[in-house]
Amino acid sequence: MIKKILSILSVLSIFSISQLNAADKKIGFIYIGPPGDHGWTYMHDVGRKYMEEKLGDSISTTYIENVPENADAVRSIRKLAQSGHDLIFTTSFNYMDQTLEVAKEFPDVKFEHATGFQRLDNVSTYSARFYEGRSVIGHIAGKMTETNTIGYIVSFPIPEVIRGINAFYLAASKVNPDVKIKIIWVYSWYDPGKEADAANTLINQGADIIVQHTDSYAPCQAAEKAGVLAFGQASNQEAFCPNAHMTAIEDIWGPYYAAKAQAVLDGTWKSEDTWHGFKEGMVEMSPYNENLLPADLIAEAKAMEAAIEDGSFHSFEGPIYNQAGELVVPEGEVADDGMLAGMMFYVQGIDGDIPQ
Prior knowledge:
The protein is an alpha/beta fold. Helix content is 41%, strand content 19%. It has 11 helices and 14 strands. Helix 3 (71-82) runs parallel beside helix 4, helix 5 runs parallel beside helix 6 and helix 5 packs antiparallel against helix 10 (295-310).
């Protein structure tokens, strides 16, 4: 009888340990939009699922979607910290202050803030060099436009967005000196209605290519309906606008998320800044649409990808001038990461002012 009781206790003990190990660490995510946006948030969620697949039962994950970049973000981040999450990813630039506020309250919780620049002992920052992809689509757009007018839909005036506009224009104007870009600010990352309206406005102003730094596929669909061309954003959106979608810059977060979660499991996590691009696989291009793009242009785009990856091409190689005609990057030099991270000026040739 005693042996039977001990056997049962042993089984229960093993079961308890098994249950504990089934989710050694809890990982949380704060999303600016819905995973169904098929853009920015969608790709973060793809990354979360990749992490789950790689790490299995050693982690469990939670996400909160559609979190505004205000006091609601503080409450949502704090909710995850209070509920025992060991690692929290906050996946939008304007979560920066809110992430830091909660991180100070929970020094034992690790935080990862996407596209930010302020760190603490328990806060890391990470981003991708999206501007590398902007160079590729700029090259394509400069070659493909017939009206020499390109419409560019943007969210907020932050360095990431300004850097992307500049990289795009520098590449487009290099192959087509007559090209002009028209910019509309929608002051939202995800608002399909506003994004579609902006696309239609730009098309009515003569744009025959639509570019976006917003998260929905509405601009691409508007482009297709109007019979013009477009690029997807953050993920491959060709399924939603196959007759307009030339390619897209894809954000690849999964390997990074898995590595950081593994570091928490191993006890090796540390506060650091990560900024990766084509070379490290954090930025990729969607398949080039062979029904829309000439074979020689696809070859040029792929060659540019390879040149960026091996370092023989840089999106911001001098000479580069700002709108005032001042030399900001001398000939033979490239912009350093400090300039890129804080970029809040337009390069020469772009019309209009950056909103304050």
